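User: Show me a protein chain along with its predicted structure.
Assistant: Here is one chain, sequence first, then structure tokens.
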Amino acid sequence: MALFDCIICPGGWSQDQPGQGNCDECQQGQYQDESGELGCKTCSVGRYSIVTGSTALFDCEICPGGWSQDQPGQGNCDECLRGQYQDESGQSSCEQCSVGLFVGEQGEESCANHTQCAKGSYRVKEGNLTHDSVCSVCNAGYFSDNYDALICVICSFGRFQPQKGTQQCLPWRSCSEGQMMQKNGTSTSDVECVNISTGPSVPQSPAPKDSPSPVPLGDAPSPAAKDSPSPVPLGDAPSPAPENSSSRVPLGDAVIAPSSSSPVPSVSTDNYTLFLSAAVRASAYNSLLAILFMIWLSLS
């Protein structure tokens, strides 16, 4: 076997051991732009190559933004993790987001600001390197007038807010003159007012059409007395008192005393007119008796 039978390894290949029957092909991340070399050259840090048997340096590509490579001779780049970024190409590492910024996906070239919770909302969860802040709107009856508020504030007494996500509460209404409060206000509802009702007027009851006119007291008819005696005829006048009576009662001073055995009935207001009529008739009867008594005296 002659020396010229030993073949030189071409570019893209190499052999570092003597007496070998073949050459070793350059792997990904390597290249060899010369022939007869003991080994392959490697792509530098921040570069990669997916080509095998590469014969040129330009096969080593630069890692793009969002990627990096900190080892030489690599067939790929490493993607930046969440919370990291790389805004330049051909870098050996990724940068971490600063406070107030985050990256929620891999392979990003920049970090994003945490969401600022608007007025009318509050921050439910604070953001970090890998997650954004979480905001939620204030419920009805609550408000928030600051950015990035940690809580929503309930409406104070005398104020309300029926809607969500507001920056302030509204004052309760005041019932105007001629109105009254029907329902108290709450943190979510206003005061309800109603007009004051004067109520229906009560009509006067008309007098009955057939009701009799009132009779003057002096002209009241004399009802028949229940137990009054009938008038005594002149010829049947009662016997005079005995002569030995100690005195005679003058006619003008005659008094008819009520019987002690008969109780005096109480007169109700409704029978007042009838009672007076009976009294007038009784007085006329007593006068008649007195006249008869005088006639009897004159005849005796």
